[in-house]
Write a structure and sequence with these properties.
The protein is α+β, with helices and mostly antiparallel strands. Helices cover about 25% and strands about 25% of the residues. Strands 1, 2, 3, 4, 5, 6, 7, 8, 9, 10 and 11 form an 11-stranded mixed β-sheet that branches. Strands 16, 18, 21, 23, 24 and 26 form a 6-stranded mixed β-sheet that branches. A 4-stranded antiparallel β-sheet has the order 12-13-14-15, covered by helices on one side.
């Protein structure tokens, strides 16, 4: 879009939602000044002289209804509920329809299309390098920063968490994982084996980080992968639910898989226990009053189950797809039991937390979010004309304080009809028109920024020790197939012909000598197979000398049969090279000039290591 067209679209957007333009403009001016001014000119008069710690807990595929605080008697979540009881709860808080976009909006305070995030796998989840994250802002303000769990906004450095403001990262970068018991994870880019059930393991890391930084300010992001499938939970939680009959049912009761619901409830109760561990650690270290604790979810529930009679689930653009709990506690600063009824969104978290913690927002791009501090401190502020936009695959839904307009142009009065059962577009044509014009303005201003051209995966950054190229980011050719429909934790299999190949489109940032570790599995009958790696005219070969006939695992932990996640294997690595590779944008290719047997070699990933 040219600058002139961009400004025309922006003016059109502003004419329809002038209040939003004015509010965002004031916010943007504040956060981009060279002097490093905060979002608001003044912080709350009650704010502590010492900057608070910040703990953000985000769960994956947990719906608004998956909390006892919201009236669900199917489970008990006392620890998560306690955050709401001790602080504020936001009654109408909206995230995105799927994982990566929500995370991008939290990280940047900007609608996800602006940051280039348009999917959940195969590179579509990468957050543009021009975006500045909440961790970078807090790190620049002297905070120790850490992320434990799921990242899902880019795998290769400098998209990797340690390049986006986090001092310490332990977890995984993709959208989901195939097994939750001692899985292979990353620690600051190095492959490591997890210890025990993944949510327990990640929380142990979080607890240790808090203990190690009790005497300095810290920002810690605990991004838990539960209750995203595969549906696995420790036995004691499953025992509570495996035979239970639930009183609270899905709105579409005939579509509910009760065993899936049972597994989800067990997983959420495990999350709750781990949230309790974090809260207990803060209390034991006398950090509770010095710490802002935030809890929210990344999208609607991943199955048909009770969700407050709202329409929609994960992946959609209706109320039940987008509404998330948001609980925020800071004893002595945020009023206990406060209810915020105004509509808010994930884009508001960065400016709000920075404002509360008095962290300067400098050198960032203009934000779509606003600080919610006035809503937390009781100051009089009116957001009656505000709109929250939700985007998925170029479809847009918009929510005002009273109404929702869906992508089909259906209008719902969310106060009189919270279940979205009556389309009132013909009864309220002026409202429908106003909201539709706002949607068109949003598309022209925000969605138009989304660049859908394929981008290669960066590799060989000189400031980082290695580049992981998982099967998720590669392409199969010929007979080669993925091990499952969902790419995230898949591997390549059925490599049975010398005409087959596996490729990665990469941008090698700086030339040098590399060793490439091929993570593979194969039966004894495939020993002798030759693998050839080529890039930009350079070629290296290796021969499979030893079998790795690893069985699949993961299904033995499933509480209900998995639908799309790949099963896992214990892959071993074989080093290719060293090989001199030039700086280039080209296709890295794996071929097999000689194939032995009819089972083939299976490939999980390549790891590029720069060597002297």
């Amino acid at each position: 879009m040219t600058a002139r067209r961009h400004m025309v679209a922006l003016r059109s957007f502003a004419q329809v939602t002038g209040w939003l333009f004015e509010l965002c403009l004031l916010t943007c001016i504040a956060v981009t000044t060279s002097s490093g001014a905060r979002c608001a000119d003044k912080v709350a008069s009650t704010a502590s002289e010492e900057q608070p710690n910040v703990v953000v807990i985000l769960t994956d595929d947990q719906g608004w209804g998956d909390l006892s605080f919201h009236g669900n008697t199917n489970l008990s979540t006392p620890n998560i509920d306690s955050i709401a009881k001790s602080g504020a709860r936001f009654d109408r808080f909206y995230v995105c329809s799927v994982c990566a976009p929500t995370r991008a909006e939290f990280l940047t305070g900007r609608y996800h299309p602006r940051g280039g995030v348009r999917g959940v796998s195969e590179g579509l989840e990468r957050l543009n390098l021009s975006e500045r994250t909440i961790a970078q802002h807090f790190h620049a303000a002297g905070y120790a920063t850490a992320l434990y769990g799921k990242w899902h906004n880019g795998s290769q450095y400098p998209y990797h968490p340690v390049a986006r403001g986090f001092d310490d990262f332990y977890g995984f970068c993709s959208g989901h994982w195939g097994d939750y018991y001692s899985p292979q994870l990353e620690h600051n880019g190095h492959l490591v084996d997890g210890k025990g059930y993944i949510v327990d393991d990640l929380t142990s890391r979080a607890v240790k980080f808090i203990e190690n930084h009790a005497d300095q300010k810290f920002f810690m992001y605990l991004s838990l992968p539960s209750p995203h499938s595969p549906m696995q939970a420790p036995e004691k939680f499953w025992q509570r639910h495996k035979d239970r009959q639930y009183a609270m049912k899905a709105r579409e009761e005939d579509k509910e898989d009760v065993n899936f619901t049972r597994a989800a409830m067990a997983m959420v109760e495990n999350v709750d226990e781990n949230v309790g561990r974090v809260l207990s650690t803060l209390n034991q270290l006398n950090l509770t009053k010095k710490t802002i604790v935030v809890f929210f979810c990344d999208n609607g529930p991943n199955s048909f189950r009770w969700n407050g009679d709202m329409k929609g689930r994960k992946g959609g653009l209706d109320e039940g797809s987008l509404r998330s709990p948001l609980f925020m506690s800071w004893p002595g600063e945020i009023q206990q039991g406060r209810l915020v009824s105004q509509i808010c969104g994930a884009v508001d978290l960065l400016p709000t937390l920075a404002d509360l913690a008095r962290v300067p927002l400098v050198q960032g791009q203009p934000m779509d979010g606003i600080t919610l501090r006035p809503l937390l401190t009781g100051e009089k502020v009116s957001l009656q004309n505000r709109m929250i936009f939700s985007h998925q695959n170029r479809q847009v839904s918009v929510r005002s304080q009273q109404y929702r307009l869906d992508p089909k142009g259906q209008l719902f009065d969310m106060v009189a009809d919270p279940g979205q059962r009556r389309n009132i577009a013909t009864q309220k044509p002026d409202v429908a028109k106003e909201l539709q014009q706002a949607v068109e303005g949003f598309k022209a201003d925000v969605v138009a920024e989304l660049d859908e051209k394929p981008k290669p995966f960066v590799a060989g950054h000189p400031d980082f020790h290695s580049t992981i190229l998982p099967a998720r980011d590669g392409k199969p050719h010929g007979n080669v197939q993925r091990s499952a429909k969902a790419p995230n934790c898949s591997y390549f299999t059925q490599w049975t012909s010398s005409e087959d190949k596996i490729t990665w489109d990469i941008d090698l940032l700086e030339s040098g000598k590399f060793v490439i570790d091929l993570y593979f599995a194969c039966p004894e009958s495939a020993v002798g197979t030759e693998i050839e790696l080529s890039f930009a005219g350079q070629v290296a070969k290796v021969r499979i000398e030893k079998a790795n006939d690893a069985p699949e695992f993961g299904a033995e932990h499933d509480l209900v049969p998995r639908q799309s996640e790949s099963l896992m294997k214990k892959f071993v690595h074989l080093s290719i090279g060293p090989i001199d590779l030039p700086k280039a944008v080209d296709t890295l290719k794996l071929t097999a000039p000689t194939i032995v047997g009819d089972k083939g070699v299976e490939v999980r990933m390549l790891v590029l290591r720069r060597v002297p």
